Amino acid sequence: MGRSTLTLAGAAPRANATVVAWGVVTLAGALLLPWGRVGRDLWTFVPGTLGVELLAGEWTVAVAVLCAALAGSLGVAPLPLYRRGRLALAVGAVGALAVFTALATRGQAIGPGALVAALGFLALVGIGLALGGYVQADAFIGVCIVWAAAFVLVFILYPLWAVLQGSVYIDGRLTLDVVRQTISSPAFLLLDNPATPQNEMHQGLLAGAVLGGVGALVAAALTRRARATALWGLGVWLGGSALGVLYFGFGAVRNSILLALVVGVVATALGFLFALLAERSSLPTRKLFGPVSILPIITPPFVLGLAIIYLLGRRGYITHHLLGLNTTIFFGMLGVGIAQVLAYTPIAFLILQGVVRQLNVALEEAAETLGANRWHILRTVIWPLARPGVANAFLLTAIESLADFGNPVVVGGGLPYLATEIFFAATGRGTSEAAVFGAALLTLTLTIFLIQHRWVGLTSYVTVTGRPTQGVVRPLPRTLDYAVTGVFVAWVAVIVVLYGSVAVGSVTKLWGFDYTFTLEHFRGLSPTGWAVFRTTAWLSAIAAIPSTIVGFLIGYLVTRYTFRGRSALEFCSMLSFATPGTVMGIGYILAFNQGALLLTGTELIIILAFVFRNMPVALRAGVASVLQIDRSLEEASTMLRASSPTTLRRVVLPLVRAAILSGLIFSFVRAMTAISQVIFLITPRTNLATTQILSYINYGTVGLGAALSWVLVVFMALVIVGLYLLNQRLGGRAAGGMPTM
């Protein structure tokens, strides 16, 4: 306000150092760095492609250099703030368009000069949006918004577009033949099997009608209102009919939906109960959460499937050696469901523990003062405040189940699932059919996201206000405490037995036949196994930091700022997590295997795949945590003339340290255990531990696979404990999501 008044009165506006700095950086990069590189090597550049060498021959480069020079001069020009911002926006947009045109027409892989120029012009666009009044924020936030949108466009939407284009654009023409053939195939969805005497469609509709009638009767008894009875009956009938048809049907769509619903509900329920137990139990068993609950997520998910085969397979130790059974009951949806629940419940627990820990005890004290018992408080206070975390946990676990590739391959029993059919189609039947399966899977995961968004709604869940709150954490009702502890003890027993079988297998000569102790499998990891382990750890560590930073920033932006495209940015950022890894892997191959964005065959493509595959985890954790922080804390910082970076660093980050550390850990763990996406991106020079383990298993050297799996487990456990101790040393509480040790 004061600056605008001075300008109108004739006083000269101050120079804008931000605009000047970005103009200088963009100009230097465009002039002094090469615009092209040779092939896939990131550090071999094409001679004669420096910006100063291309000025005379390529008009796009000349326009970019001119725009960079103009941007630098705008920073010191005597212009009103809003006009300077709008001119910076125009110059940045023209410069970015010139760079993109040059990349599209030159036919060379992008070099550092073009990259710096592109990022610089995008930064100028963000600064222009902020200074010009198009975004109600400062320049830092404007740059973050534009860069985040650009990254999502290039590394999430563009690969998906490449896959979808390949599904309908075949041999140079647009056709839907592959789509029709795939959808009509029994492997996709079969609702009425001609090989069976009964009609599965009619059975499902009948089951839905019965459930609808029961739902209507229950609603009538509870509400005694005709409208509520009719709505409940109709809703239960529709939902029950859909589930009934799927239950009696066949195909990958049916198998994936039913499995995701069961795994999502069971894993989220267990995760919520375990979170309550870890924070509110009065029993000493809560100390076991640290070492046990984290174990299933620091190993590749298919290792649990392998353990199920060891113990419960046809020649399993329990089924065959102890019980004398020769059964394949655990090969199929039951075995996959058990493995996924064991693998994904800790994910729900990590999310929900932080939510339960941040609940305001004063609200429970107020409810007690009004005469509420512990059960009533649990239902009317704790549960409503935990709803965002519960919804996020269900979203993540259901999507993980839908996109899981390893467990259906190992213990799926040959049943078709969307994730496995994508892989088999891509490796044997063509990427066009794989893209159709991927589109179906994407539709399912987006539906889950929309349901979650609707359920949480617009309710306020603020519990961290900056005002002092004192009180003693209320314990669980004793009955619930003992009951959930019993479930947890059973969980511990199952986890110990399953992982114990893999541990024994790593030091056993030949599982199932010769149990002689040996360290030969660990010695056999040299040199290949140790080499891929080092490569995996290095790439995962590099990717975890930007994945967490980008994810949290996007979550903060979409939660705290209003700008055009905010919902689209959040929605598109989640697409990489909602899309199965096999589809994203194919997309990266199609999108980054030629032209300016030639990246395949390099370590960078794997790092980028890790970053944008795991980014949504930090995003959702950031959203859930920021929603519990009162805006007045940040507004107070702004009124004291603190910039956005300062407010983030000194106000927001200390309050959401738990979510950030949880996102960092999960990003690292996910990268270390990833397989479905990177299986298309690895090369002999950049092989990863998970693909090497699967290779060991496929070639029959299961002992080597078990040995490398335990190397991963021990290493990641040490890393997580180290991060936990570091967080404690810095004075913070255990990560929201970090188990209590």
Termini separation: 53 Å
Write down the CATH class of one domain.
Mainly Alpha
Helical proportion? over 70%
Name the average pLDDT. 78
Q: How would you describe the shape?
A: globular
The total count of strands amounts to 6
CATH homologous superfamily label of one domain = MetI-like
Number of helices: 31
Walk me through this protein's architecture:
- The chain is an all-alpha fold.
- It contains 31 helices and 6 strands.
- The chain is globular and about 80 Å long.
- The two termini are 53 Å apart.
Short note summarizing the structure:
This protein has 741 residues and is mainly alpha-helical. Helices cover 71% and strands 2% of the residues.
Write the layout of secondary structure elements.
Layout: H1 2-8, H2 17-32, E1 36-37, H3 51-54, H4 59-74, H5 81-106, E2 109-110, H6 112-131, H7 139-168, E3 169-170, E4 173-174, H8 177-183, H9 200-223, H10 226-248, H11 252-280, H12 289-293, H13 301-312, H14 317-322, H15 333-357, H16 361-369, H17 374-403, H18 406-411, H19 418-429, H20 431-456, H21 478-506, E5 508-510, E6 514-517, H22 520-523, H23 528-560, H24 566-578, H25 581-591, H26 603-626, H27 631-639, H28 644-655, H29 657-673, H30 689-698, H31 702-729
Antiparallel strand pairs: 1-2, 3-4, 5-6
Helix pairs in contact: 2-4, 2-6, 4-5, 5-6, 6-7, 7-20, 7-23, 7-24, 7-25, 8-20, 9-10, 11-15, 11-17, 11-21, 13-15, 13-21, 15-17, 16-17, 17-20, 17-26, 19-20, 19-25, 21-31, 23-24, 23-26, 23-29, 24-26, 26-29, 27-28, 29-31, 30-31
